[in-house]
Design brief:
The protein is mostly helical. It folds into three domains: 54 residues; 96 residues, DNA polymerase, domain 1 (Orthogonal Bundle); 173 residues, hpI Integrase, Chain A (Orthogonal Bundle). Helices cover 44% and strands 11% of the residues. It has a three-stranded antiparallel sheet with strand order 1-2-3, covered by helices on one side. Helix 5 packs antiparallel against helix 6, helix 7 packs across helix 11 and helix 8 runs antiparallel to helix 10. 27% of the residues are buried. This is Site-specific integrase. Keywords: DNA integration, DNA recombination. GO terms for molecular function: DNA binding. It holds the Pfam family Phage_integrase.
Length: 356
């Protein structure tokens, strides 16, 4: 049964009205309003929902803001996830755009407005990742943290941005020779070997060299700078078998282990390397390789070829050598044929040769 009481200040002046509902089988529900009419209306609607079995407590969703939800998700969930370091900047943007709203007030139209505003600044893929992070945080709150969302999870109703056509950049003409010549002249002594190995194995950068990223918790060091955490040690010698011509990866981006076969060229590249005391095959970090690689491309007058495009190149070459999709996925770590389609851009002239 609902009880409506006035709330008064020290001088006995009414400053609001409190509605309180006690009903068997439900937790006590209390809410304060500016007018008695509003309190009475809310109590009537809420009791009706309880009688029909439709009542969902809004108290937690009204008390919890997007800001606090995302903070908790970043603190408790992201550090446990592989690749959680990639979410740091996404957390920041979500908090800036939607952080002030309570979860009860967060609607699909607000999320859609956020999407449209972000699309004016960054690409569709970035916005899609941000919406995905928000959706996972909302689901976590609703399913495990006791935060009921009366209107459901608003991101479910928002259309995700359409993604542009996948990249189709391959090495053409004498670009590989020019690139490797420029890499050999780089200050980074590991660059040429890393690039050759990437082209020969289709391995990701983080699977080849040590990678550090910003701590997903957002923690700061004594100098108020974001802490860096190692997310990958890269390839280590104990996982390389030159006799069997294999490189074992205990973990990867998708969480699965795999063993990569090594071509003759990849083996020759490894045999020429010095052995580091720390066990790493390549004594370089991804950030160092990335910077050196970009400078090498500039010296070689090569435009639009990212380091990740070398994985596209390697994967496409596997298909051109006659490997079937299952064999290629075992080498590259792609889980589905649909994922492989993004990376496989076979040259028409090469296909024509096979047709006879």
């Amino acid at each position: 049964m609902a009880t409506i009481r006035s709330r008064e200040d020290q001088d006995g002046i009414t400053i609001g009205w409190q509605a309180q509902i006690k009903r068997k089988g439900f937790p006590m529900v209390v809410k304060t309003f500016r007018t008695k009419a509003a309190a009475t209306q809310w109590a009537t609607v809420t009791e009706s929902e309880m009688m029909r079995g439709l009542f969902v407590s809004r108290s937690e969703s009204e008390r919890t803001t997007v800001d606090s939800l995302i903070d908790r998700y970043a603190r408790e969930v992201l550090p446990t996830q592989k690749g959680g370091h990639r979410e740091v900047s996404r957390v920041k943007h979500i908090k800036e755009g939607l952080g002030k709203y309570s979860l009860a007030a967060l609607t699909s139209s607000l999320v859609a407005d956020y999407r449209d505003a972000r699309l004016k600044i960054v690409g569709p893929q970035s916005v899609k990742h941000e919406l995905g992070l928000l959706q996972r945080a909302l689901k976590k709150g609703a399913q495990e943290w006791g935060i009921a969302l009366p209107g459901g999870i608003p991101t479910f109703l928002v259309k995700k941005p359409s993604l542009p056509a996948s990249r189709n950049r391959r090495l053409v003409d004498d670009e590989e020779d020019r690139l490797l010549t420029a890499c050999a002249d780089a200050r980074n002594p590991w660059l040429r070997s890393v690039v050759v190995f990437a082209i020969e194995t289709a391995m990701r950068a983080g699977e080849i060299v040590e990678t550090w990223k910003q701590d997903p918790s957002g923690a700061l060091d004594a100098n108020e700078k974001h802490l860096q955490v190692k997310v990958s040690s890269g390839l280590i010698w104990e996982n390389v078998d030159l006799k069997k011509r294999t490189a074992h990866l205990p973990t990867s981006k998708n969480g699965d282990a795999r063993t990569v076969p090594l071509s003759s060229r990849a083996v020759v590249t490894l045999e020429a390397l010095p052995r580091n005391l720390d066990g790493r095959v390549f004594g370089a970090t991804y950030e160092g390789v990335k910077q050196s690689y970009n400078r090498a491309c500039k010296r070689a007058n090569i435009t639009g070829l990212t380091f990740h495009d070398l994985r596209h190149e390697a994967t496409s070459r596997l298909f051109e050598k006659g490997f079937n999709p299952m064999e290629v996925s075992a080498i590259t770590g792609h889980k589905t044929l649909q994922m492989l389609k993004r990376y496989t851009h076979l040259r028409a002239e090469d296909l024509a040769k096979r047709m006879g």
